[in-house]
Structures are given as structure tokens and as C-alpha cells.
Design brief:
The chain has eleven helices and nine strands. By secondary structure, the chain is of the alpha/beta class. The relative contact order is 0.15. The protein is globular and about 55 Å long. The chain has one domain: Alpha-Beta Complex (2-enoyl-CoA Hydratase, Chain A, domain 1). It comes from Peribacillus simplex. Its EC number is 4.1.1.94. It is an enzyme of class 4 (lyase). This is Ethylmalonyl-CoA decarboxylase.
């Protein structure tokens, strides 16, 4: 099953409506016998997901206002991470900020050659706000994860593969995920779900959800800062 972020005119940025749609699809697909795996990708060729829609969220000024939005998406991100079947992020275009957090929540990340991605939250005076850093620390070596978070730079897919963030580079003109997943798709859905449960149990035992919640709270505090609001204003004015 393919899940499409369908806001190409906004570079597939996440707003409240997209959050609700994503949550609904995850709930419906989780125990749909026709769904063996879930592939997330972006509409169009320019962007996988550019993160949160800053124009929609720019009126969130206080820590409490920010926490309400961030924790809503954080719950969805955790739901994606523990989705009972394999998940693949097909990064077909740029993935910045929260877009990288969504990709991190997936079990595998495939990227088209040359696409750009980065945990750029630091350039806006905040940290990862949906729990993505806690997930990243589970997925790749800690030092490499920390470098990606701290430098807040934009990297090409090939460089991200060297970090271990991207699992495979796929060519233009192909979805790529079919070949990547063809071997394990031969198995019964019950087999795939049994192995995914082992991973989920590991995370549940390690306190992943609590760490994601703490991460969201940290971002909420920074969101309320003058530095963040000034950075958002500069970014939005530059986009005009």
C-alpha cells in the first residue's frame, strides 16, 4: 500500500489536515489483511516532505500552543514507528526537518539519486519536534546521528547513505521499492508482522515513547523563544 503526501504546491508540508489523514490511514491499514507493507512517498518530483507547514503553524507562540501541535504529530510518528507491518520511506524528492523525522520513523529509507535531505531544525532555533531524534538514535550509530542533528546541514542522498540513514539509492523513473522489498514480500503477512513485533517489543522495553515525549517537550520550550520566531519570520519573508 502506498501512502502519498499530496500537497505538492506546499512541497508536501505537514498541516493539521495531513496529520489527521495520516493517522486515519495508519489506523485502517494496520490490520487490513490486504496490506503487507506501507510505502510513504511525496506527490510530484520535487519533495518527499518539507516538514511542518510554517505558514500554518507560525501563529503558535507559547510553549503550550507548540506542545499541542508537536505532541499530536509525535503520537502519529510513534504510531508509524510501531506500525505492525514493514514500512518504507521512498524519498522521491527533498526531505527537510520534519520530513526527515517521518522518514526516520519508517523501517527502511530509499532515496532517489541526488535528492537533498537534512535535519535542519537547528537553523530555525528549535530541535526535532516530533520525536525524530530519539528514533534516529535507534536507527544509526549514535555519533553519526548526533552529527546529523547538530550540523543541521543539507546532505545529498548518497552522503546520507554513508551515514547509514539511507538504505538504498534508487534510480530515476522507477519506484525502486518493489525490487528492494520483493524477497520479504514473498512471505506470509503473519511472518512479517511477527518479526516487526520483535522490533516493537525492543523499543517498548527501552522507553522509546518516553524519550520521544521528552524530546517534544524540549522543542516546545525552544519554539516559544524569540530566536525561533525571528528565524521563522526570516524564512517566510525569504519565501515571498
Amino acid at each position: 500500500m502506498k501512502l502519498l503526501f499530496n500537497r505538492p504546491e506546499k512541497r508536501n508540508a505537514v498541516n493539521y489536515q495531513l496529520m489527521d489523514e495520516l493517522e486515519s490511514i495508519l489506523s485502517e491499514a494496520a490490520y487490513d489483511d490486504e496490506v503487507k507493507l506501507l510505502v510513504l512517498t511525496g506527490a510530484g518530483s520535487e519533495a518527499f516532505c518539507s516538514g511542518g507547514d510554517l505558514r500554518e503553524f507560525q501563529d503558535l507562540h507559547t510553549e503550550e500552543e507548540a506542545f499541542a501541535m508537536l505532541s499530536k504529530m509525535g503520537e502519529i510518528l510513534y504510531k508509524l514507528a510501531v506500525f505492525p507491518k514493514p514500512t518504507i520511506a521512498l524519498i522521491n524528492g527533498s526531505a527537510f526537518g520534519g520530513g526527515c523525522e517521518i522518514a526516520t520513523a519508517c523501517d527502511f529509507r530509499l532515496a532517489k539519486s541526488g535528492v537533498k535531505l537534512g535535519f535542519v531544525q537547528g537553523t530555525l532555533g528549535i530541535t526535532t519536534g516530533w520525536g525524530g531524534a530519539s528514533l534516529l538514535l535507534e536507527k544509526i550509530p549514535e555519533q553519526k546521528a548526533l552529527k546529523l542533528l547538530l550540523d543541521a546541514k543539507i546532505h545529498k542522498a548518497e552522503e546520507a547513505k554513508e551515514f547509514g540513514f539511507v538504505d538504498e539509492i534508487v534510480g530515476e523513473g522507477t519506484d525502486g521499492w518493489e525490487m528492494f522489498a520483493e524477497d520479504f514480500l514473498r512471505h506470509e503477512t503473519g511472518v512479517l508482522m511477527a518479526y516487526k513485533r520483535l522490533l516493537v517489543h525492543k523499543w517498548q522495553g527501552s522507553g522509546l515513547k518516553g524519550r520521544m515525549d521528552a524530546e517534544i517537550r524540549e522543542c516546545s520550550k525552544l519554539w516559544a523563544s524569540d530566536e525561533h520566531h525571528a528565524a521563522v519570520d526570516r524564512f517566510l519573508n525569504k519565501k515571498k
